[in-house]
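note to self — DONT lose this again. spent like an hour looking for the file last time. sequence + predicted structure for the chain T wanted, 144 res
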Amino acid sequence: MKAVRLDTYLSIVLLVAGTLVFMEAKSFPQTPGEFPVWISTILIGLSALLFIQSVTNRHDDKKLDINNKVLIQIGITAVAIGTYIILLPYLGYIIASFILVLSLSILFGYRSIKYLAMTPLAAVLLCWVVFLFILNIPLPGFAE
């Protein structure tokens, strides 16, 4: 397949995502809608800057060669995230998230037992602490 500029396509995807979030957040009531409006505005601005940089800086060598292996990994990642969404209410946040992060780590080639044990655990616990104690939002299946 033809080599593509990752930053150009990424900036377009993020620009579209930011615009969609902005439009949806504008339909929220004033106070709950402020945070997503600000975040989407920042995302749109940074995406526009990335797009301008990627278009004007053509001498840069950063290209991504998309081959069948990459496409298969993207497909497996999408299926894994879909499965995670389905299993989340049944397994709870901690178990489902640990399985997702561990599975994706193995998929992307990490083989160190130390990495495979510590990274999913640290990522899941960090998110759990942030949501439960800082944002005061209980996650599914634990401390509901």
